[in-house]
């Protein structure tokens, strides 16, 4: 299981350069999906350490096309951070911000996994839980086709500003997440597994419209709290919304999202909703769409 081994190694070795998906990979999407690497990682396996810095494992890309056996990973037992407080937190906002917001919040579904506005979190899994999107490739990573134009525009705009974002993670398939999560459960038990790995069906990465970006100037900060202070992290914080992306897990909204701050995790929602969030001062989809958040219900 090259992926899990590599993922665990990355816990200590840090990120290594990742090659693009080879030409033709999109056409082999089904096979690639089966082999898409999912270790612990942003939103799929990130938790919040006591210092508020997420512990996540960069996931190496794969070029394999053969279906992988779903063997358990080799979890590294320590250090295991404390989980994000698992209290159940209900939505704190109104569903409709009123006519002044200027956006029809029923325009797209918040529950259809194929919607640009789908809300998935620890309380609200994807339905169907093993949802598989159509996929295309952007700079070597698998994403849903409707998110691809804005993602490309985001990356191109950064380049134009002399800021070179890297993509570190995008789509993750349900079977791989399930295998990885089950491996952690076997090793650590349910509670600690939840602290280091998302349950399958609960990761935004399974939608194909969430990506993790990295720093070309300080790659050691990829998937780390210090990403927010990198030139790339600062650029994303300022400009992601212009291209339809939300920095989903922000300081101060952990009890709603269920995840600690992840300044590298970008969720595509489209430019209209991104602007709506900015203009209304909201930071979470849970608040906008009145969807429960917080920790797992169990
Ligand atoms: Zn992520």
Automatic annotation (TrEMBL):
Domain D-alanyl-D-alanine carboxypeptidase-like core: 143-270
UniProt cross-references to Pfam families, sorted A to Z: VanY
Start and end residues of each stretch annotated as Disordered: 63-101
Domain of life: Bacteria
InterPro entries: DD-CPase-like, VanY-like_core_dom, VanY/YodJ_core_dom, Zn_M74/Hedgehog-like
Biased composition (Pro residues): 70-84
Gene3D superfamilies in the record: 3.30.1380.10
Name of the protein in question: D-alanyl-D-alanine carboxypeptidase-like core domain-containing protein
Lineage, highest ranks first: Bacteria, Bacillati, Actinomycetota, Actinomycetes, Micrococcales
């Amino acid at each position: 299981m090259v992926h899990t081994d590599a993922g665990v190694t990355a816990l200590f070795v840090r990120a290594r350069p990742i090659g693009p998906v080879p030409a033709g990979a999109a056409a082999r999407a089904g096979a690639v999906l089966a082999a898409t690497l999912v270790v612990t990682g942003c939103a799929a396996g990130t938790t919040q350490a006591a210092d508020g810095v997420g512990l996540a494992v960069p996931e190496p890309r794969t070029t394999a096309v053969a279906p992988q056996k779903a063997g358990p990973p080799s979890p590294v037992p320590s250090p295991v951070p404390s989980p994000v407080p698992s209290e159940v937190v209900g939505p704190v906002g109104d569903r409709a911000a009123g006519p002044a917001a200027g956006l029809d919040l029923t325009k797209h579904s918040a529950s259809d996994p194929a919607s640009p506005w789908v809300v998935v979190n620890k309380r609200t899994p994807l339905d169907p839980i093993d949802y598989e999107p159509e996929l295309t490739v952007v700079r070597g990573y698998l994403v849903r086709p409707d998110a691809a134009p804005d993602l490309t525009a985001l990356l191109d705009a950064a380049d134009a500003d002399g800021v070179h974002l890297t993509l570190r993670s995008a789509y993750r398939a349900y079977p791989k997440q399930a295998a990885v999560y089950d491996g952690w459960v076997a090793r650590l038990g349910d509670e600690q597994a939840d602290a280091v790995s998302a349950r399958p069906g609960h990761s935004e990465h399974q939608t194909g419209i969430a990506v993790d970006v990295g720093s070309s100037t300080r790659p050691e900060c990829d998937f780390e709290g210090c990403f927010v202070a990198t030139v790339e992290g600062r650029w994303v914080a300022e400009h992601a919304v212009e291209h339809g992306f939300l920095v989903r897990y922000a300081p101060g909204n952990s009890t709603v999202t269920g995840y600690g701050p992840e300044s590298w995790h970008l969720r595509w929602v489209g430019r209209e909703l991104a602007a709506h969030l900015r203009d209304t001062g909201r930071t979470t989809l849970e608040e906008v769409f009145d969807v429960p958040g917080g920790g797992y219900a169990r």
